[in-house]
Amino acid sequence: MTHITSTTPAGAFSGGVRLDIQHLGKAYGQRQVLHNTVLTIEPGEFVAIVGRSGCGKSTLLRLVAGLEGPTQGKLQVNGQDVTGLRTDTRIMFQEARLLPWQRVADNVALGLPESHHDDAVKVLAQVGLGDRLNEWPAKLSGGQRQRVALARALVHNPRLLLLDEPLGALDALTRIEMHALIEQLWRDNGFTALLVTHDVQEAVALADRVILIEDGTVALDERIDLPRPRSRGDAKFAALEKRILDRVLQHPDEEPTPANDEAWPGLPAHGLRWAI
Amino acid sequence: MESGVFQTTWYQDPQESWFPWDKLLSFAQAVFQRLLPWLVPVLLVSVWQISSVQGWISVRVLPAPLSVVDAAWALAESGELWKHVQISAGRALLGLAVGGGLGLGLGLLTGSIRWAETLLDSTIQMVRNIPALALIPLVILWFGIDETAKLFLISVAVFFPIYINTFHGIRNVDLGLIEMGRTYGLSQWGLYRQIILPGALSSILVGLRFSLGLMWVILIVAETISAQAGIGYLTMNAREFLQTDVVLVGILLYAILGKLADVFAKGLERYWLRWHPGYQ
Q: What whole-number distance in Å separates Cα of residue A105 and Cα of residue A123?
C-alpha cells in the first residue's frame, strides 16, 4: 500500500491483525448456526461476508468480536485465542448505538482515557463532522450518526474493525459516500476489516475478498482484484457482482425462521454483570 | 444582508420604515396569545365577586374572592401563614426524601441485580396493593397522631411510584447500548453511570412526578385528621369558627404548593432530558 497517510488518526500506524478461524461452530441449544467454518484473514485485509439473512454471518462476527464464545473450534487473533472482548477490536453495529444523552464529542470519547479526549475531536474532523461536536445525536441524520459511530470506533486505533451491516439502514447515496469514507480510513490506518453485509455491490466495492456463508459455513471465497478506488460502472466490477449475486441466489432461501441473525441469545456472562 | 439599514425595497416606504410597525404588531399578537388562556379564569372570578357582592351567594358558603385575598393578607401579615406553610412543606419534603429515597435505592437495586429482584420484588409488589390511606387506623395505633404518623404515611405513599418507575426504567434501557458500552471497554461502574442510569432517568422522573402528586394528597388527609400546626390545622381550625375565607386560603395554598412542586419536577425533566427531542 503506497497510499500516503495524510490523515492518520491519533497515534501511530498500528497495522492490522491476522485472524484465524479454525473449524468454528456455534449452536444455540439444538440449532446449529455455524459449523466447521475455516477462514484465514491476513493482516490489513478487507474481507466482506455476504449471505442471506439467517445464514450465520452475524453470528460469525459476534464470535470474532468475543461477544459470544464458540461451541466448537477456535478463533485466533495473531496466534492468540479469542476468549472475550479485545481492546484492539472495535465494532460498528447496524444501528449507530450512540448514547442519546451524550453530545457527539462525548460519544466518540466513550471509554477513552481523559488524556486522549482531543483525539475524539480530530477523528470527528476526519469523518467530516468537525463542526457538530456539541450536537445531540437526536439532531443528526442517519448517515451522520453512522459517521459518529465510525469515529468512535476509529479513535481507539483498532487493529481489527468489525462492521455489522453498518450501512444497511442508509439511503443509497449516503451509502456510497460512506463506502468512500470507510475505504479511505481503512487505507490510511491499515487495520484488518471484516464487513458483514447483504449487499453484494457493497462487498465488491470495498473488499479484497468476498466470502459467502451458506448453511452456516463458507460456501465461496472470491478474491476481488479490482484497482481502488473502484468504480461501480466498470464492466469487470459488474461481472464480478453478477457472478457473486447469482451464486448467492442459487441457494434456496432458508426455511422461514424469522430473524435467525437477529435472535437475541442473551449477553454472555463475563463475570458479574447488571441484570439487564 | 443583516445590516441592510439603508436598503429599502419597492414595497417599503422609506419615510415609514424608521418605526417597526410590523414588530409592534407581532408583539401585540404574542401578548394576546399569552393573555388568552387567562380570559376564562378572570371572567369566572369576576362573576364570583359580583355574585358575592350582590348577595346571590351566601358568604358562609363561598366568600367573595376579595375577602379571601384579605384573609390571606391578614394571615401573611401576622406571620401565621408562613409558619403553617413551612411546617406543611417540611413534612411533605421530609416524607418525600425518606420514601422517595428508599424507593429510588431499592428500585436501583432490584432493577440492576437479579437476585435482589428475586429476593425483594414480590414482597414489595404485595405491599404495594395496600392503599396508604387504609393504613391510617394502624398508623394511629402505632405512632399516635404526632409527626411520625404523617411522615410514615407520606413515605409509604411516595415510595411505590418511584420504586416501580426506577425498576422499569432500568429494565428498559436499550440492550444494544449496553452491549456497545461493553465492547468499548467501559467498566461495570462506567456502564452503570454512563448508560444504565441516564437511560433510566426519564422513567425515574415520571415516578417522581407521580409521587409529588400523591405526596400532597396524603399530606392533606393526614393534616386534616389531626395536627397542631400546618395548613390542614389552619383550615380545620377555621372550619370550627366558620371562617370560610380562611378555609379557602388553605385550599389555595395546597394548590399553589402542588403547582410549585410540579413546576420544579418539570424543570428537572427539562434540564436532565435536554438531549431528548421530546423535551426540547
A: 10
Reported as a pLDDT band with limits 50, 70 and 90, residue A205 is very high
Q: Is B190 on the interface with A (CB under 8 A)?
A: yes
Place of cell 484465524: A20
Domain boundaries, chain B: 69-279
- Chain A: give the shortest CA distance to residue B213, in Å: 27
Q: Please, what's the b/e burial string for A37-70 (b: 16 or more CB within 10 A of its CB; e: otherwise)?
A: bebebeebbbbbbbbbbbbbbbbbbbbbbbbbeb
pLDDT in tens, B126-162: 999 998 889 888 998 998 888 899 999 999 999 999 9
Mean pLDDT computed over A136-143? 92
Identify from A63, A68, A92, A99 which residue to disrupt to test chain B contact, counting B C-beta atoms within 10 A and taking the largest count: A99
Whether pTM exceeds 0.90: no
Q: Where are the domains of chain A?
A: 14-88+160-257, 98-157
Lookup result for grid cell 380570559: B39
Region A150-160 average pLDDT: 93
CB–CB of A91/A65 below 8 Å?
yes
* Residue in the block written with cell 369566572: B44
Q: Strand ranges (DSSP E) for A69-170? A: 72-77, 80-81, 89-92, 160-164
- Given an 8 Å threshold on Cβ–Cβ distance, is B112 in contact with A274? yes
CB–CB of B203/B168 below 8 Å? yes
Quick check: A275 and B112 CB within 8 A?
A: yes
Those residues with Cβ within 8 angstroms of residue A57's Cβ, 6 or more apart along the chain or in another chain: A49, A50, A51, A196, A213, A261
Q: Report the CATH superfamily, name and number, of domain A14-88+160-257.
A: P-loop containing nucleotide triphosphate hydrolases (3.40.50.300)
C-alpha cell, A160: 481489527
Looking at this predicted complex, what is its ipTM? Answer: 0.81
CATH topology of domain B69-279: MetI-like fold (1.10.3720)
Contact A276 B112 (CB under 8 A): yes
Give CA–CA dist B25/B5, Å, rounded: 20
**Backbone dihedral angles phi then psi of residue A211, each to the nearest 5 degrees:** -110, 130
